[in-house]
Write a structure and sequence with these properties.
about 130 residues, mainly alpha, DNA polymerase, domain 1, 2 domains, 2 strands, about 5% strand, elongated
Length: about 130
């Protein structure tokens, strides 16, 4: 049995605006390879890529220094995620993402935080708020 229709959503994350344009063109240009079939592609990139600028690197170094003062390791991580921080970073505003409490299950019914880390994370956020002008 062959289904009369099928669909999918694509969650595409890119490292540069140029990559976003290229991939969007390629995806929107897809066509069926089988006679009698049709492909409809709609949509596009819904946020700019998060690109680490020198100002973001400096803000991270500042946050890492505060984290060390409160006994917290703050390793640099790149997860290819997409958040509202992508918009502020694209505007040239130094932006850090992922400073919240660690946990697991992001955006799932079992999402949770490790409450034992709340005090250190709160101290980090307070330190940032006290030292940023």
């Amino acid at each position: 049995m062959i289904s009369p229709d099928a669909g999918c959503e694509i969650d595409l994350r890119v490292n540069s605006a140029a990559d976003g344009v290229l991939m969007e063109e390629r995806l929107l240009g897809l066509s069926a390879k089988t006679a009698g079939c049709r492909v409809y592609v709609e949509g596009g990139m819904n946020r700019p890529p998060y690109i680490e600028s020198p100002a973001i690197s400096a803000l991270y170094a500042h946050a890492q220094g505060i984290a060390q003062q409160v006994g917290l390791a703050l390793p640099k991580q790149h997860r290819g995620g997409g958040s509202d921080g992508n918009f502020s970073a694209a505007l040239g505003v130094p932006t850090l993402d992922g400073l919240g409490c660690p946990g697991s299950g992001a955006h799932a019914s079992h999402e949770h935080i490790l409450w034992g880390h709340l005090a250190q994370r709160a101290a980090l956020m307070a330190g940032l708020l006290e030292t940023l002008a």
